[in-house]
Structures are given as structure tokens and as C-alpha cells.
């Protein structure tokens, strides 16, 4: 299964009715990164009026969060999150740092401003497609090679390592779907997965 994310961190600055909006988008892989990034930007932009953010993590959009940081409820984090979702991105966080310029934007104006900041930065990002891979160790006896090759022929795989130990063949393979196969003549042992 594949998913879309951004290739690298990017930053954009925009002025809307005298308020300065600094938008930063970063690739992330788990929720633990969120707190450290938020802390980093809180320190870097210590004098900002608001530092709002939204993120989506997980290949199936498992984790999502929107944070308004003092803006009226639902006017900052949710609009940012909606843009991430509309663009079908995951493993991404967008921060929008606002320096108030003296002109109130109102509820609709805030929603438009935060949405626009998020949309513009994503539109300028390099979007990449990542594929999730599963790694297996396949073990079978030499005498069962023909049978093992028939089974393996039904699976689209990449052979990484092939070794021999006594009367056994040991393969390490990479495939893009999880399988659950166990037969008396051939054994698939799940090792790990990565993106």
C-alpha cells in the first residue's frame, strides 16, 4: 500500500491585512515528533501571537490533530487539517505562526487565511509517494525447491538475500503486501516492515 507525503521541510511567509503568517510544513513519522517540533517553533517564534498546527500520521490516516493556540475554536487548526486531508497527504505537519497586525479578521477571515496558508505551502511542496514493504524470511528444504518456487511465483517479491544452511534454503524477500502463509514444506517468517 502506498501513500502521499512531502519530500522535505518548507517555509512560506504571507501578509494578510497586516498580520504576518509564517507557514512551515514538515514530514513526520510519529506523534512523538509533534511535541519537539512545537517546542522548537515556540522557542523560535517566542513573540508570535499564535502558533497553530495540524497533522496527519499513518498510512491510513490513523492519527490527526488540529490545534488553534488561542484563535477562536475551529478557525485555525481545523482549516489547516482540512487542506491536508483534501490533498490526501499523511505523515505531515503544518504550523502556521501568526503575528497579529492590528486588524481583526473575523471568523470567516481567519478560516480563509489559515486555509490559504496551508494550501499555498502544500501546492509548492514536492509530493512523494512512499510504498510500504514487508520483509520475510522464507525457509525450505532443498528437496522442496520446486514446490517453493511455485509458491513464490504466485507472489510479486524482490529477493534480497539467498543463503544455504545444511539442507535448507533461506531467502530474505521484500513484498508490498502482508501475507500469512505457513505450509509444512515452506515457512514464511515475518521479519519487519518499513516505508
UniProtKB/TrEMBL annotation:
Gene Ontology CC terms: cytoplasm
Source domain of life: Bacteria
GO-annotated biological processes: regulation of translational initiation
Domain annotation Impact N-terminal: ranges: 17-122
InterPro entries: Impact (IPR023582), Impact_N (IPR001498), Impact_N_sf (IPR036956), Ribosomal_Su5_D2-typ_SF (IPR020568)
Cross-referenced PANTHER family: IMPACT FAMILY MEMBER YIGZ (PTHR16301:SF20), IMPACT-RELATED (PTHR16301)
Record family assignment: Belongs to the IMPACT family.
Name the record gives this protein: Proline dipeptidase
Amino acid at each position: 500500500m502506498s501513500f502521499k507525503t512531502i519530500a522535505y521541510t518548507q517555509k512560506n511567509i504571507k501578509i494578510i491585512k497586516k498580520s504576518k503568517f509564517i507557514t512551515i510544513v514538515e514530514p513526520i513519522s510519529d506523534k512523538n515528533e509533534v511535541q519537539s517540533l512545537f517546542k522548537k517553533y515556540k522557542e523560535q517564534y517566542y513573540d508570535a501571537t499564535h502558533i497553530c498546527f495540524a497533522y496527519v500520521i499513518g498510512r491510513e490516516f490513523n492519527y490527526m490533530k488540529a490545534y488553534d493556540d488561542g484563535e477562536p475554536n475551529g478557525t485555525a487548526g481545523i482549516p489547516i487539517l482540512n487542506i491536508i486531508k483534501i490533498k490526501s497527504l499523511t505523515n505531515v505537519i503544518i504550523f502556521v505562526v501568526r503575528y497579529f497586525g492590528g486588524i481583526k479578521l473575523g471568523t470567516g477571515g481567519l478560516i480563509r487565511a489559515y486555509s490559504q496558508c496551508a494550501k499555498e505551502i502544500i501546492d509548492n511542496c514536492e509530493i512523494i509517494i512512499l510504498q510500504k514493504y514487508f520483509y520475510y524470511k522464507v525457509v525450505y528444504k532443498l528437496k522442496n525447491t520446486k514446490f517453493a518456487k511455485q509458491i513464490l511465483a504466485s507472489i510479486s517479491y524482490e529477493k534480497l538475500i539467498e543463503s544455504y544452511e545444511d539442507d535448507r534454503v533461506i531467502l530474505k524477500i521484500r513484498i508490498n503486501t502482508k501475507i500469512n502463509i505457513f505450509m509444512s514444506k515452506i515457512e514464511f517468517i515475518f521479519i519487519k516492515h518499513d516505508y
